[in-house]
Write a structure and sequence with these properties.
CATH superfamily of the largest domain: Bira Bifunctional Protein, Domain 2
Number of helices: 15
Amino acid sequence: MLLRMSTLFLRTLREDPADAEVPSHKLLVRAGYVRRVAPGIYSWLPLGKIVLENVARVVREEMDRIGAQEVLFPALLPRDFYESTGRWTEYGDTLFRLKDRKGADYLLGPTHEEMFTDMVKGEYSSYKDYPVTLYQIQTKYRDEARPRAGILRGREFVMKDSYSFDLDDDGLKRSYELHRDAYIRIFDRLGIDYKICFAMSGAMGGSASEEFLAPCDTGEDTFVACRNCGYAANAEAVVTPAPPAVTAGQPPLEVLDTPDTPTIDSLVAHVNEHYGLGITAADTLKNIVVKVRTPGSDEVRTLVVGVPGDREVDFKRLEASLSPGVPEIFEAEDFARHPGLVRGYIGPQVLKELGIDYLVDPRVVAGSSWVTGANEPGKHAAHVVAGRDFQPDGTIEAAEVRPGDDCPRCGHALSIDRGIEIGHIFQLGRKYADAAQLDALGPDGKPIRITMGSYGVGVSRAVAVLAEQLHDGLGLVWPREVAPADVHIVGTGKENQVEVASGLAETLEARGLRVLVDDRPQVSPGVKFKDAELLGVPTILIVGRGVSQGVVELRDRAAGTKEEIPLDEAVERVLAACGA
RNA sequence: CGGGGCGUGGCGCAGCUUGGUAGCGCGCUUGCUUUGGGAGCAAGAAGUCGCAGGUUCAAAUCCUGUCGCCCCGACCA
């Protein structure tokens, strides 16, 4: 491959685009890799297209290596496939819907579980056919409430999705492990920094699920990591270790007058001053009321969640824990309908008789004693003991996770970071096979329900993540595997530099390198240097003022090093630098 | 959905308060000079100022409406 800057369809920008906030967005636009078309929708220019294809190639090679077979579904899909699993309605506004000329409903595929399942059902029928794994690299469409950060979170994006079909749980586990290994190879080859995190299997009803998160300040996901034992988990999936149950005798429950203590801080200050309890916010029990809606039905139940008063409820964690139920805020009119719930002074002591479910943070163990609401305006209760004064209906992971919290595996302090999800592997189980009645006929003549795994890689997102993780003040710094070229040859000078550069480019191309050569006439050296740094090709060869003395300059974009080398060694030196 | 900000040549912006010939930088075209860090000089091309209505002798500027875009939030009872 040989690209010439003199004819390459490329225009770099000197300034950041006004609508870009994050580094990857700014740089990919400035360097002429992508252009915005509409919110969350981008065009890929030649260099961007090459990088995108390189990522796709790596993904494809590693999927093929584990025996997955590539297929391609349409992005434009008829409604009926999504009707059978209920997702035509469940997906809500995120689904791009459209009608054909006859008025029939269509959608742009946000994901393709239904299509894969249906395809396998149509072709395979014997246990001898299994296991099988299929994948595609496809454009997906999701009408996100808020697309952001350029191609990091778009409404149209390229994703590799694959599905494994197995006869039993052991097979599923093997398919899952194969994918896990493939993903490790993919992200290692791409040069992405990532962490494998435990994730919630959530509504999909699966058993095991892990996310590949790329640590990144601009990330939307929060994850915890333990430096000691290597445990890592999405914040939504973190398990809170329960302290040992308390058995020692506790003083009896005591109701306290606590006027004007609407917040935890004011409550703590008040009881310490007037009752000398010497407590902290962590000794109080905060009770949050939510409504939980069951999707697909009108059923709404009231739920109270108890967490230590020094912690906020993390709505995302709550949501994940309640899934498929959807928590909603308990409004003033809801309080009006439940006079037993005294806003600001709710305690769990009365929930049983009110018939309201009560779930507590795992720290609220049997025998633990709390200061909490007394279910009367202006009153709280002290020495309220779990198991004695109230009986929780179970535990729930809803409290926020904080840096320094105990690792659930080894007890060391956890750190918290943000990341971007670039891959997800997931033991789906039989949900879709059940919906589609996907069976194989067994050796005994009886049907075997197939069990599935679902696996995704954000291909276009990976491009943005690389830009996000690998850049400096001058521009992009691509790893060689995805770079638009192996070497960027800059010819600059008023003598024969451009011809020499062009000749070197042809020689190196013939030796198997992907070459980008700046052969633009009448362009000043400064511009060419700046562009080379902005574009981010890993190896840069400058053919400039030294050429009449037989000297050229070899640069390493990532290391920032430069070295003068003899012109007649240039070809071999570049080949060596490019690992060819 | 809530809050904030912004719509002016291809890109980045000023002008609006206080109405009066639409401007700057980058980019682009032509010529000459220049060639190791986003060159210089000269001459050019290119904008119905998001859209609609209103006020006015006169609107990018004031008023009303509307559309779009960007950012933050989506919870703390």
